[in-house]
Amino acid sequence: MKDLIVIGAGPAGLTSALYAVRAGLTVAVFEKSVYGGQVTGTAEVENYPSIQKISGFEFANNIYNQSIAQGVEINFEGVEKIEDKGNYKVVKTASGEHETKTVIIANGVERRKLGCKGEKEFTGRGVTYCATCDGAFFKKQDVAIVGGGNTALEDALFLANNCSKVYLIHRRDSFRGDKILIDAVLKRENIEIIYESGVEEIAGDTNVKEVKIKNLKDESISTITVSGIFVAIGLEPKNQMFSNILELDKAGYIVADETCTTKIEGVYVAGDNRTKFLRQIITAAADGAIAAVQAANYVNTGK
To answer: Which residues form the FAD/NAD(P)-binding domain (predicted)?
Structure first.
């Protein structure tokens, strides 16, 4: 039986694993996809203390390699369910059941989908959710990006460096992101902003060829010709698998305060998947440290 099982290998999960191993706990991490979480889709990280600038991919690699070097066991396998057995927990995966004294849930969040016609059919064929991952495939082509927050603004600027033209589709008549990003976007000649509009349909043949846009004021439909469309409309948690034992809020986030404790003793939550004010790499890492110390105290004292 492990002292701790961590679900998720993003900054929160790997930080918690590092702290727990250094506290003398036996630790296993389960990750359903790739390590690093949302940070792997970030072109540059410039707001993490002591690091002036680093790519998201490099940041993820560094924390992963650091975890391995410290002896953290990482399994690339998704978790299906957690069961509370009182003084121990059972984490169920495709390979079987894993017993542990404590659990830290750090599964992060996922990109929100548009839900329009053609989105699913053209995902991977022009529809993408990561500008930094896939932007290079659209060099000197026309593309569209959907969203109005900081991520959409950053992605628009990133794409404008390589693409011929970037259409920025936003459902409101103004942006709510950081002023420095808004000003930068407005200055770019090859970024065209389409306000008060949403995507009605994504169409093409083998790949995306055009996007039909609906004006939300007069409901008129227009069409733009693009080779790709980047979706940046926010994030959503995937916590339903834990709803059998934990409380979720209306948006699906696990209810927990700054102590990262849940209503179940021995189960903690860290990172973007919990109710919190600010979702950043640094707050995810902070959660990971707090949750790990909580787990260590529980293992050592039974409380």
So the answer is: 2-288
Long-range contact set of residues 247-256: C-beta below 8 Å, sequence gap at least 24:
249/275, 254/105
Read off the pLDDT of residues 117-176 as tens digits, 9 standing for 90 and up. 999 999 889 999 888 778 888 999 999 999 999 989 999 999 999 999 999 999 999 998
What span, in angstroms and rounded, lies between the C-alpha atoms of 238 and 249?
12
Q: How many residues does the chain have?
A: 303
Do residues 95 and 82 make contact, with C-beta atoms less than 8 angstroms apart?
A: no
Mean pLDDT over the full length of the chain: 94
Longest dimension (CA), the chain: 64
Q: Are strands 73-75 and 235-237 parallel, antiparallel or unpaired?
A: unpaired
- Active-site positions read 130, 133-134
Helix segments in 23-85, DSSP class H = 56-69
Residue 212 · residue 223 · CB < 8 Å? yes
Contact 167, 226 (CB under 8 A): yes
Q: How many helical (H) and strand (E) elements, i.e. helices and strands, does the chain have?
A: 6, 17
